Amino acid sequence: MKFRRHALAVLALAAAALPAHAQLKAEVIHWWTSGGESAAAKTLAEAYKAQGGVWVDTAIALGEQARSVAINRIAGGNPPTAAQFNTTQQFRDIVDQGYLNNVDEVAKRDGWDKFLPETVLSAIRVNGHYYAAPVNIHNMTWFWFSKAAFKKAGIAEDPKTFDELFVALDKLKAAGLVPLAHGGQPWQDGIVFTATLAHFGGRDLYLKVFRDRDAKAILGEDFKKVLLAYKRLQSYTDRGSPGRNWNDATALLINGRAGVQIMGDWAKGEFAQAKQEAGKDYGCAPGFGPKAPYIIQGDVMVFPKTSKPDQIKAQQLLASVITQPATQVAFSMKKGSIPIRTDVDVSKMDICAQMGVAAMKDKSRHLANGEIFITPDQNGALQDVLTSYWNRNVPVEKVQKDIVSALRN
């Protein structure tokens, strides 16, 4: 499917010709459907409305489904104004196919290069053009601890190492609680693997696997230990785990039935919705130790190709509103993420967010999400291998070989 192409100058002039008071309607496809996510999405809608726009909400459960709907509509010539993707290579194909408008004018005017981390810039800037507006920064590998469950199991302090994590899981199991609250879906299995690789295997091994796709490292003893630790974590899940949504797993921690969850910081939005307080009702750790890697992920909005002046102006307004300081703080306080900007006041954010902000100030801790380094096809193949290993009795040596094949160029 080919889109009609017009000179950027003509589009800009047409957009500028719109009446200043015209309401700019923006249909936004996203997958923010849980309680905390919906509350966060509402902050974006309100900020857009406050600056003259009309937000048309198209929420679709599950990221894979939302992205599929967005791509089908874009290719079919009925695009939304904007669509949510992750800060990865997920939208690179539709950039290459010419399906997106860039927002260079907004990025340059608002100085995105001055406040965005390089890992984010490398995802949204393609061939010198800005094809997405970053919404937030997530770390996908937080460890969450239920204070109520820990108290029942006689655990006095949150784990500070992977070894201490396993000790805590054993105590939770002995107390008759669900040690590890997990949603048995491939993307969630992938998060647990990523957390194990980064925080059990370490930064160097993580990069050898994801960035370098180093077959020798993947077939090596250190990576085998990572896979065995990953499989050991599966033994602490409950029978209700398969198919469970991530927010339902978080609810097990909120009601004290489970002790630990490994999930992105969007889980914090569910704790906030339940009126629970970080440090009092639940614990959080982005990793173990003061130099633990901080895996940078996040959400972006992309802007499908259109020649309609009102839609172009709506896209540019939305890109600007999303990245403004006040919007950034309001959204992250509901979502559980941290702002993309370093020049905002985060003093009112909770202690978990403060940990994230501190980590982002230390560039030595920055670690790109694995999906930055591999294509969506490679990531899908890797998830298939990991989910099969998580759920079945597969020899670890076979898993190592299968991962080499999955990540092969």
Helix content: 40-55%
Protein structure class: alpha/beta
SS element count, helices: 20
Oligomer: single chain
From the alpha carbons, calculate the radius of gyration and give it in angstroms. Answer: 22 Å
Largest sheet: 5 strands, mixed
Outline type:
globular
Query: Mean of residue pLDDT?
Result: 92
**Order of adjacent strands in the largest pleated sheet:** 2-1-3-13-6
Low-confidence stretches: 1-21
Strand content of the residues, in percent?
Answer: 5-15%
The beta-strand count equals 14
Report how far the terminal alpha carbons are from each other: 27 Å
Function: Part of a binding-protein-dependent transport system for a sugar.
Organism: Pelomonas dachongensis
Subcellular location: Periplasm
Keywords: Signal, Transport
Written description of the protein model:
By secondary structure, the protein is of the alpha/beta class. The protein has 20 helices and 14 strands. Strands 2-1-3-13-6 form a 5-stranded mixed β-sheet. The protein has a 4-stranded mixed β-sheet with strand order 9-10-8-11. Strands 7-12-14 form a 3-stranded mixed β-sheet, covered by helices on one side. Residues 1-21 have low confidence and may be disordered.
